[in-house]
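Hi,

I'm pasting everything inline rather than attaching a file, because the server keeps stripping attachments. The sequence lines come first, and each chain or strand is labelled.
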Amino acid sequence: MSKQPVSRRQFLNYTLTGVGGFMAAGMLMPMVRFAIDPVLAHGGKGEYHTTKQKVDELSTKPTRVDFSYEQKDAWYTSEVTQTAWVYKNEKGEIVALSPVCKHLGCTVDWEGSGHKSQFYCPCHGGLYEKSGKNVPGTPPTRPLDRYQTKVKDGFLQLGKPEPQDIA
Ligand code: FES
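And the predicted assembly:
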């Protein structure tokens, strides 16, 4: 096996390519991390937030539950406050509905404007049944989202609101 001498030109090429690649990686990594960090920071499906609502105080009548938590977007941390309408259904299961109207995102109110046993959206008169199902003939075309729920030490924990599939 013959040894090929490395020319001065080859040596410089290898060295500069290596150093250049290293520097490019050093510059690109923070940019990539910056771009994907908000996605990672949200924690996805498994994240639950503890509320001040005791589960044994829930009834069949929807109760407004406000809860706050810290949200980190890249280097910026902010306090987020969200709301859920929470009750126990006839099977004793906890139902926690998002108040965000599926028409244009206003906030719905239980029995607002005198609408008995319904959620009412004041923006364009949207109506939903107690289950969150949208009432046909009113602007919303989809049911209210439903939070995932857990109970810890007797207190309600809420996860991510997800679309409901109610016929
Ligand atoms: S935003 Fe609720 S009905 Fe339009």
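Residues 38-43 have pLDDT under 50 and may be disordered.

If the labels don't parse on your end, tell me and I'll reformat.
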